[in-house]
Amino acid sequence: MGATLSVFGITGAFRWTALSGSQEFEALPGSGFGMTRAFGVSSNGRLIVGDGDDRTGNLHPVLWVPGGVLDLGIAGNYQSGRAKDMSDDGQSAVINFTSNTGLYPEAAGIWTSGTWPMLAHEFLALHGIGVPAGMWLTHCEAISADGRTFAGNARYRDATGRDVWTGWVATVPGAMVTVAFFGLFMGHRSRP
Predict the structure, then answer these.
(1) How many other β-carbons are positioned within 10 Å of the β-carbon of residue 16?
(2) Is 141 within 8 Å of 149 (Cβ atoms)?
(3) Contact 153, 181 (CB under 8 A)
């Protein structure tokens, strides 16, 4: 799985297997440019997540299933999103949302086959996991094979007003909940 790049800068997601060779994935219906990119795959290779542009050119997280493509949707007030990884069974995926406005232009998201995409802090709250006050989950980059552990990046402002970036991991295993924040000072930038 991967993406090709045309001379016009348009990408096209594809899958290659020894049995069938290279197969390009279809774009979202009404796509403005026909752009698609693939990032994650289920263990059996039948379900793939990535992104594709809508008729206005905004990227949407998508799920390719046998016979078609599904728009997973956008959470909150965000304009675009990209599905980055999925669980082995294809029932959960992690998404990064972006916006051109607002205090938090990037947000981590989680999709499951039983829910619409949600901001990660909302999804985790439904499972009894609280994110520390003042911390914003900006990206969700990975999901475990069983779809219960999520990892990504977060941001908060320290006492001196600097933005501090950190990693986060959250696990939702049945009745027990585990959250870890690490790299408390992986990098910073001063406020302008």
Answers:
(1) 11
(2) no
(3) no
Q: Rounded to two decimals, what is the model's pTM?
A: 0.81
What average pLDDT values come out for the chain (192 residues) when binned by 10 residues? 50 68 80 86 92 91 92 92 95 94 86 92 93 94 95 93 93 56 39 36
Phi-psi region of 57 (alpha: psi -120 to 50; beta: other; left: phi over 0): left
**Length of the chain as a residue count:** 192
What is the total count of domains within the chain?
A: 1
How many Å apart are CA 34 and CA 3, to the nearest integer? 12
Q: Which amino acid is at 67?
A: G
* Residue 37 CA: distances (Å) to CA of 11, 146, 156: 6, 24, 30
CB under 8 Å to 151, separation ≥6 — which residues? Answer: 140, 141, 142, 143, 167, 168, 169, 170
Q: ∠80-86-90 over CA atoms, to 5°?
A: 115
